[in-house]
Structures
1.
Amino acid sequence: MAGAASPADRNPPILLGVTGGVAAYKACELVRQLQQRGHRVRVILTRGGARFVSPLTFAALTGEPALTRLFASAQSGEAFASSIDHIALAQSAKALVVAPATAHCLAKLAHGLADDLLSTVYLATSAPIILAPSMNVNMWRHPATQANLQTLARRPGLAIVAPEAGYLACGMVGDGRLAEPAEIAAAVETALRPVPASAWAGRTVLITAGPTREPLDPVRYFSNRSSGRMGFALARAAAQQGARVQLIFGPTAAEPPADPGIELIPVTTAEEMAAQALARFAACDAAILAAAVADYRPARPAPAKIKKSPDALHLELLPTTDILAELGRRKTHQLLVGFAAETGDPRPAARAKLAAKNADLIVGNDVAQPGVGFDSADNAVVLVSAADEAALPRASKDRIAGQILAAIAALPRPVPVPANSGGLRA
Ligand code: CTP
């Protein structure tokens, strides 16, 4: 019931949602782990969750009634005086943790359904959210579950603690076992740590990504193996740090990021990419050119399919617009970052490009190294600026993206100068 503020009201709770999976018993240990770290815990049980562990168990562990209903009922004895109390509850939370989160729960949260207390609180809270899924291995691997996870993973402020591989209650062995309570509690601590104000907040950044396609005739084209994943990771990381991102990307099988704050600008050819980049550059604070732009294009794409013939086929190829060099010429206040994909030590070429293209930073990588660069989930790069050279060892492209953004933010801030005057610096 509503009443005078108690000491508990001044200690915002971690809301722990427990859904109907056999791992629900582990939520009892998670309550303890969170309490040992000094947190107040309030438990929200779904209907399924309450069938595995009784509300009474959680009430005894937390010293507060476990919450099971969206609306108060005369018999419930729960602390809901009116139908808006779930909003107050959601807003009072310092974090919302769901452990275990069943496949059904993930589907509901991914699609924004709000038919019980937990799913309603999920929509209404602005606190960090930590989901710890647990289910049968086939349910975990099902494309529907994986699609829901991808949707959820893209949401800002939401972390997923992946299940472990191991023996499952259903008798199968595989992914799907709830992460250990200590690991979930550690993820909660990480989510609660204040995020330092980012130099990217409110900045406009132009990013190019992926390959370009240069048509030879209506059915054939020149392209390259770039997946676009490095540029996509940069776009995602910049948007998560509060930047407004304009992502110009060529045709690729990789899914472009759907985060809020990212404007997607799909293009096909180098000239289309150049037109978009040149039109947008003046209004940007930084440009990061991660695209593998074709250096040449067929001079005269055939209007109809080229038929095979016993004769040699001679093609005339024309250079495309060098977007990086062109932006380097037009640069006024913007930070300009290019990439140098080389086979072998990328540092000499990176340093040469830094000067030749009037860039502030060149990210060099050795594409001959196995497991990194083109078409890989990982990268290993060297950052070359006028004053510095730093090697970033092999890591996921997401991690490398964060490190590249930090390095760009640490560059000396350009002093606005008229275009074409040679890029004076402070
Ligand atoms: N780039 C560009 N426009 C082009 C070609 C490349 O903006 N038409 C950019 C890439 O996005 C990347 C950098 O320039 O940031 C790569 O530099 P570049 O000298 O073109 O690389 P390579 O073609 O690989 O260099 P080289 O031919 O010297 O090996």
2.
Amino acid sequence: MPDKHVTDKYDVIVIGGGPAGYVAAIRCAQLGMTTACIDKWINKDGKPALGGTCLNVGCIPSKALLEDSEQFEHISKHSIEHGITVKNVKMNIAAMIERKDKIVTELTAGIAQLFKANKIAWLPGKGTLLTDKKVSVESLDGDESTLYQADNIIIATGSSPVELACAPLTDERIVDNEGALNWQSVPKRLGIIGAGVIGLELGSVWRRLGAEVVILEAMDDFLAAADAQVSRHAKRELDNQGLDIRLGSRITNTKLNVNDLLVEYTDKKGEQQLTVDRLIVSVGRKPNTYGVVSDNLGLKFDKHNYIDVNDNCETNIQGVYAIGDVVRGPMLAHKASEEGVAVAERINGQKPHIDYNNCPWVIYTHPEIAWVGKTEKQLKKAGINYRSGVFSFVANGRAKAMNQASGFVKILADEQSNRVLGVHIVGPAASELIGQAVIAMESENTSEDIARTIFAHPSLSESIHEAALAVNARAIHSVNRK
Ligand code: FAD
Ligand code: NAI
């Protein structure tokens, strides 16, 4: 019997409807569990929406703008290389933003449809987990609270941008990712704090549309998480495109003037100043844990304030799970969704397993950057002997035909067993090519398995084939180093 104060009782309540939460809810419902999903998101049209950061202000809108801006740059600057003359190419920024908003609306409405089809109760509001797996849901207008209960709870409350005290956000001039995805005009001079994934992607968008972009990055290394050879290549390409990336730059202050804004920072030469028209703060994200659980619940958090979970996303409270950005691991939508599926199946009594080593990373700059598995630095540090096979897109016919022959594929394989340990790509369609590497690693393939596979000609994928051949110094279309 449900508690008399409880409105509804479910098998599972999911708090948060981003790619972690909505996927978990759908998988739970597929497995026959009665499921509710609580989400407090309100979109800029004032309506509640599912999809979380990813669909509303993250992965999807940023890729829409990356696509538009890349097409604009391609048509205006590179058509000539294909023998096409175009004149007076103009970008309608309002139309670009409208197209992005339409994609967001369609995709988030699609999730709502999937919820309906799977009979998932969508409860718009702010959820707080109380004791006995009761969840209080405060309505979006804050006027009322309703109590629900479930046998299992999945917390999937995601993350928010880290704020900088010396660069507080303003309406339009100092913004985070959300603001920078909604500008209605191109800033003449754009400053960005943080040369991480958001800084590089959104910096690319606004540079392609005409902004002079300076990125201030505190670290001395560029993209330290990527393989060093890939980072070096990417940095050179981005420098050549005109992204002014200043490493080792620590911001100390910002001053809003009437017509511009001043950013003060220090680098190894001392105190510096930069005058810009707008500024994006993209210095990382923090887990959304504030107000998600009642204080007396006793839920454990780790030292960085993520919800503490084991490999199965179980918290210290039986029947309470946490997934996605609110727990350890990379803040990536596909990692979040995989955890959602795995937790649903675990609640259902199955024994799913996620191999986090096989989680791909992609940065959607031009050229794209993608990798899976270990970097050379990580293998060296772990004392693992490996062989490396590198193949450059410059010798790939399809890449040449596309006029996108910059970059390479690098495969790292265990010296003894030949098993693929890491694949690193910088170049055209790296985001798509990396899927082949993930399948190879998930299948525990050797580089020989890839080398013995037939790839279509001409295709970008042939570079993966050639890199696998190069591991044993037998690439056909490049000179092998023994
Ligand atoms: P979120 O998507 O943040 O969803 C959490 C949801 O929980 C939100 O809807 C929020 O409203 C809700 N919520 C929070 N607290 C409560 C509460 N108390 N009650 C009810 N609801 C609550 N990742 C990629 O893999 N690829 C990309 O290309 C990519 N691009 C990105 C671009 C940008 C600009 C940004 C900011 C992020 C990007 N990411 C990308 C990261 C990706 O968006 C996140 O990793 C992903 O959204 C995490 O999913 P999640 O479900 O854990 O959290
Ligand atoms: P990030 O962690 O990728 O990069 C933040 C950068 O800011 C780091 O290089 C850091 O050294 C720097 N930094 C921190 N404090 C600074 C300071 N005070 N001054 C100057 N630099 C400073 O974080 P970002 O770009 O905000 O993105 C957050 C997360 O969102 C990413 O880690 C990623 O997980 C996810 N994301 C994923 C995308 C993808 O998969 N393509 C795209 C965009 C975001």
